[in-house]
Amino acid sequence: MTDAYDYDLLVIGAGTGGNGVARRVATAGWNVAIIDSLPYGGTCTLRGCDPKKMLIAVTEGVGWAHNMKGKGFDAHTSIDWPAMMAFKRTFTDVMPSRIEAAMQRAGVATLHGDVRFTGPDTVEVNGATLRAKHFHLATGARPMTLNIPGEDLLLTSTGFLELPEAPQKVVFVGGGFIAMEFAHVARRAGASEVTVLEMAERPLSNFDPDLVDLLADATTELGIHLQTQAKVRKIEQTGEAYTVTYETPSGVRTLTCGRVVHGGGRVPNIEHLNLAAASVESGRRGITVSPYMRTTNPAIFAAGDCADSGPNLTPVSVYEARIAGKNLLAGKDEHAIQYPPIPSVVFTLPPVAAVGLSEAEARERGLQFDVKFEKTSGWYSSLRVGARRSAFKTLVEHGTGLILGAHVMGPGAEEQINLFAMAMGAGLTAKQIKATIFAYPSFASDISSMV
Ligand SMILES: Cc1cc2nc3c(=O)[nH]c(=O)nc-3n(C[C@H](O)[C@H](O)[C@H](O)COP(=O)(O)OP(=O)(O)OC[C@H]3O[C@@H](n4cnc5c(N)ncnc54)[C@H](O)[C@@H]3O)c2cc1C
Ligand SMILES: NC(=O)c1ccc[n+]([C@@H]2O[C@H](COP(=O)([O-])OP(=O)(O)OC[C@H]3O[C@@H](n4cnc5c(N)ncnc54)[C@H](O)[C@@H]3O)[C@@H](O)[C@H]2O)c1
């Protein structure tokens, strides 16, 4: 390629939506650089999935002791928050340098700074101009602006994952993934008052309502105040205390607490990129991309949370990045994105998980199917671990026997859902799942009784 360019490809964002593209394209011999304004790793590795699940791994001990109480296991558990955070940092502290070193081994130039487009093939970074023949955008998402007075007082999920001391009285704005997962962590870590304020009729609107109702019961039993139809209107600070004002059908209420956490949704992190200078179009859901992950500027690709594409989940960003990298190398639109069934898990204890269509979506599409919904707390797998609430719902299509959707709540749900995703992706029928011999006793073996 021409020497007028500093790079053949500049990847903006060193998270899961960017890293794979940089490595793949550099390995093919292109002159590639990657840049991030923060340490390398992105949200999942440093501020999301991975650190969060380390905290969950610790607090699982509390849940385990609770479930096994009176069954021969008598433990008095308590969480040492600073030690738990130190455990988390054994992973997060080492990852940026590992990721950067791996990038350099693949021949990628690693840069640091905040990028802004100044033209269709130029960006400004640290006061200098860089020119690249192609760009790949993977700038992720950020907490949504809620347009309420006092929103600057909200602790973000990143702030929560860095808290030096255990939160005591904590309120979560919103009842989505972040609020539900973090509320469970905070409560099991010993927070005296945990409140989730969700404006909709149910938390976790993307998950099966029957299973979410059971999770809501488990959440309430854990001692979390889960308030639905509660729209947060204002946050005020007096000294170290916060007052949260929220609206309910029966009037305006207030709550006082020591921390208020943003769980009200995330939006594409793109405003600061000055995309107009590069003729890259975007909408409310992110950068407009074709099925080839190409933006409206044919030399620029995008993937992950910043793109108006699949759901904002790590494996989706990895998959989209792979497609973008392949098309960059092909020099044409060769590989179209074709999402396989995408499983999704809320890592509460118990977790709730879903893949494929919801019951409502399947009905809206006019599909003909059998619904199998059963509470499974009486099943051996739940009894064995003292789980008091678990259930599943599957949708099996008439005639074909294909699984249209699977929804699971309870111990093992986070792995069972992956088996359903694999079966659905491979086009296995309910009959074929039933015919599979699974090792027993295991959570996996239950899925043949779920279809
Ligand atoms: C608390 C939390 C928990 C989550 N848990 C899960 C989970 O359990 N499972 C799951 O699948 N998903 C989870 N997610 C979602 C998942 O983390 C994201 O879908 C995924 O990380 C998106 O990857 P990405 O590469 O698109 O963006 P990111 O990983 O966010 O990377 C974007 C990078 O771009 C950089 N950047 C942005 N703008 C610029 C700029 N102008 N110049 C230079 N650099 C820039 C940022 O610093 C960042 O490092 C979670 C998210 C959060 C917030
Ligand atoms: N386990 C996982 O896969 C996982 C975990 C965490 C985050 N994530 C990703 O991060 C994204 C963001 O997570 P999130 O939990 O912030 O968003 P979310 O979209 O899951 O939930 C936001 C919730 O906040 C509510 N809300 C918004 N404004 C409100 C207000 N003023 N008062 C009361 N309720 C309000 C909404 O009704 C909604 O239910 C997720 O959509 C997902 O893509 C994934």
From TrEMBL:
Residues 7-321 form the FAD/NAD(P)-binding domain. Signal peptide: none annotated. GO terms for molecular function: nucleotide binding; oxidoreductase activity. The keyword Membrane does not apply. NAD(+) binds at residues 174-181, 198, 265, 305. Residues 342-447 form the Pyridine nucleotide-disulphide oxidoreductase dimerisation domain. The keyword NAD applies. It holds the Pfam family Pyr_redox_2. InterPro entries: FAD/NAD-bd_sf, FAD/NAD-binding_dom, FAD/NAD-linked_Rdtase_dimer_sf, Pyr_nuc-diS_OxRdtase, Pyr_nucl-diS_OxRdtase_dimer. This is Pyridine nucleotide-disulfide oxidoreductase. It comes from Rhodanobacter thiooxydans.
